[in-house]
Predict the 3D structure of the following.
Amino acid sequence: MLQLVETRLGTASQIGGLECLYPVIKAASSEDQTDYEEAPLKNRKRGRKHCKIMAVPWRSSKMTQIFIQLDDISAHQRDISFSKPSGPPPHVQS
C-alpha cells in the first residue's frame, strides 16, 4: 500500500468516526510516492522536494478538502513528535 494512503488512513483512524471514508481514501488518493532518500539537488532548499498540486478533475472539491485536512493533521502530529525530547525527563531531587 502506498505511503500517502497509509498516512491518510492512519490519521483518519486516530480521529475516529471516519471509517466510512476508508474505501474512498484508498480509491481517490494519488498513486505518487515521494522518494525522500533521493540526493538533494543544488536548486532545492534543504533537500526538500517542491511539488505542484494539481486539481484532479474526477475528485470532488469536498473530498480534496478532506484530504488536505488529513494531510495537515498528519504533518502537525509529525512536527509535535519531532519536537518532544527523547528519553526520560530529568530527575529533580527536593
About this structure: Residues 1-30 form one domain. The two ends are 52 Å apart (CA to CA). The mean pLDDT is 76. DSSP finds three helices and no strands in the chain.
